[in-house]
Amino acid sequence: MVTDRASGDEGDGGLGRARSVADGLEPAGGDDLATTLPESLTIEVALPAPVHEAPEEEAAVALVGTGVDPSVVAVLETNTTSISLSEPALAAATTPASPADTGSIAIADYSRRERMAGTDVGPESAAMLTADRLIDPRRGPRSAPEGAWQRFVYRTTFKRVNLGDSARVRARKELDARIDAVLEGGARFVPVLTRKGGVGKTTITTLLGMALASVREDRIIAIDANPDRGTLSERVTKQTRATVRDVVNKAASIQGFTDFTRLVSRDATRLDILASDTDPMLSEAFDENDYNVVADLAARYYSIVLTDCGTGIVHSVMRATLQRADSIVIVSGGSVDEARLASETLTWLEANGYGELVRNAVVAINTATQGTNLVKLEEIEAHFASRVRAIVRIPYDEQLAAGSVIHWSDLRPLTRQSARELAGIVIGGMPDREA
Question: Which GO terms describe its biological process (predicted)?
């Protein structure tokens, strides 16, 4: 209820008149006023609903684009949505972070995206000037194609038309990529073995090593672990007289890769060869413990270690070799007895707990052995296909048949291609291993 009192004239007379009107003793407008004012005047006014005022402790703080550091949270009520922050946190929330506070990594991660969205985040760091951001692949020069017809079109059109590589070149590059696949988790060991001698086991080891070393950028070594005087070192030009026995005797003094390379011979493809003992009186002395010493040193400096194993499959060196093996290559000749002995090698491995190695094995069939022309090689391949992962034929090559130094560049193209296929299959079947 609101009471309105009429105001009078200025001075005491006006004040007295106002009081008389309020008391109802005198007309408000004088003698000429028809009515008099009531004793009180009631006016109803619709006021808005009262607005709730949040207490000071519940005052909200707007955090625009700024995270809350958990270390400065003072109180967190699980039944409410308010967080009470200490004064340093409030100051940090209301003050924009400087580049020095956020660091270059945060700026590199967020500033370009936010800048494109129209947000001013300060200057960019140099880390944001990446090649992916700055270089337009459509404007860059394309490499000249490989292939007779593709190269002809490329040159006659003044490098305006690039048909790309030929199918053969693409296949070659794809095989290179398979051979050069990254292997995580340390050195990988690949024994090359069979129960029969004279089937080209040492030759296959050399070809496989050369095919790997000619493509891969890491280090490849082939170790002659034949306790019966192996001939692996005779497949490359000798650069040292050192053997596995010297590695065992000097193991404590080998402090780096340079020390180790003094004991090996290196081929033009960068394949390193570690020879076996040449003295037949000492050959039997190379046992399981000696092989482990050599293998431990080789694992320090090489990514792939090939082992040319002897025919003595029950020898202690064979046990140490198989325990380290990541994959195996079984060598078979093209005759009936050579194929049968190679299959019996797989049977022996399965019977002695190496079934997983057998299923992942690769059989290399050396077609340069005697009797190959009389045997159905496809039947040999069908037999091994039921037991192993892959089979590769190694064709006859005069340089390989000579049994002397092998020069990779002088081999027939088909021989090199077969060795490269063997290398790609071996690398492709390497089991995953944690780094």
Answer: negative regulation of cell division
- Burial (CB < 10 A; 0-12, 13-18, 19+), residue 157, is exposed
* Maximal CA-CA distance, the chain: 154
For the entire predicted model, the pTM comes to 0.67
Residues 70-102 have pLDDT tens digits of 544 444 444 444 444 444 444 444 444 444 444
Q: In whole angstroms, what is the distance from residue 39 CA to residue 24 CA? A: 7
- CA 112 to CA 383: how far, in whole Å? 61
Helices of type H across 180-330: 201-213, 244-249, 257-261, 288-301, 316-324
Count other Cβ atoms within 10 Å, centred on residue 256. 9
Plot region of 403 (φ>0 → left; ψ -120 to 50 → alpha; else → beta): left
Q: What are 124-174's pLDDT values in tens digits?
A: 888 888 887 887 766 666 678 888 888 888 888 887 888 888 888 899 999
Amino acid code (one letter) for 308: D
Q: Which amino acid is at 410?
A: D
Q: Which of 331, 384, 321 is nearest to 200 (CA)?
A: 331
Sorted by where each begins, the domain ranges of the chain are 146-179, 186-428
**187 in Cβ contact with 305 (< 8 Å):** yes
Domain 186-428 CATH class label: alpha beta
Ramachandran angles phi, psi of 62, nearest 5°: -80, 120
Helix-helix angle 201-213:413-428, to 10 degrees: 80
Contact 303, 209 (CB under 8 A): no
Q: Burial-class residue 303 by CB neighbours within 10 Å (0-12, 13-18, 19+).
A: middle
